[in-house]
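User: Sequence for T9SS type A sorting domain-containing protein below. Tokens please.
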Amino acid sequence: MPRFINALALLVATGLIATHAHGQEVSTVTSVIDGGTGGLAVDAQGNVFMGDFGPNLSGHGTRVFKVTPEGDVSVFASGFDGASGNDFDSHGNLFQSNINAGRIDKIAPDGTVTPFASGLSAPVGITIDDGDTLYVCNCGSGSIQKIAPDGTSSVFATSPVFQCPNGITRDDTGNLYVSNFNNGSLIKITPTGSLSILAVVPGGNNGHVVYYDGLLYVASRGGNRIFTVTLEGAVSLLAGSGLAGNDDGPLSEATFSLPNDVVPDPTGRYLYVNDVVDAKNPSDTAPMLLRRIDLGSPASAPSLDESMRVNGVRVVSVHPNPFATTATISLSVDRTMPVRVTIHDVQGREVARVVDGVLGPGRHDATWRDGGSAGVLPQGTFYYRVSSPEGTFGGTVQRIR
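Assistant: Structure tokens for T9SS type A sorting domain-containing protein:
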């Protein structure tokens, strides 16, 4: 039996690899908050900042709340008019849109509020690039506004495909993704301004969208669920039964009520979602809860001892992680040698073999496509193992649906 199977079997037998998936559930972080579901942003310390949209879609909420990772809630800033989307710049300033005032405000780390840009048309979602340029959804005019750090403003994109553009996010190569409020369309905008509909998310009414580590996460406000969308446009259900409610539990059983935004914490283990308590009609936005989706932590999941890392072979990246249908394990090999890469479930059983041969020096991509010889696998935690004559090492990869 190969060395890497022996090592894995030993770890399972001794309990160093758990025999159950990590996380994979929805929980409630806060008690009921007397405010409406605006946008969410997370700082480097894991605090969540929540815009208070107001009691309903008329949007006259005046506050931004701060929620610690432990669930403590306080008012961070006030003086807004329909606090909706928000995002942080590189200096820790929070930019907050005011849908009814047509204005973006800048909130310093100490909570001081100053006007930043005005004359917008019902602004909602905000995303900020590496150079601190803002891209803002104009729900009222069906356009995307580009605002430079000095406040200079121009229309970046406009099209009939925008039907109250609501949420906006940016990937690693500068593409923008916009979620419509009035339908389920998710729209891609290239850096040159070319538009295309990437996907249509079930539910007919999107909240916000966020990009993280190769995947888009979309809150389906109309569908009471959270979806993932690959950059190729494949849509998968992540969490929510589709029934309206605020019940915690496993991803497929938990319920949401008009969820509006979804954002990851700094580790990527948790996704935060805000939703409405006891909604009576689709226009309700308050009161609200902050919910948390635990995807399971690749960083904290057990793995083989670091001393077993292979001389001459290392993993450059595993992406996307979590993944829906395809994950790529990128290897760097220093010299020609036989290499094997296998995928195992939490009980140590091999479910896929993605590399088994001699690799030369350089970078190599090992692609795992779900639905192979093991069939379509359930969502959860899996372990990749890299083996060569020098030894074995590995890590975790998270599958979602």
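The helical segments are 3-14.
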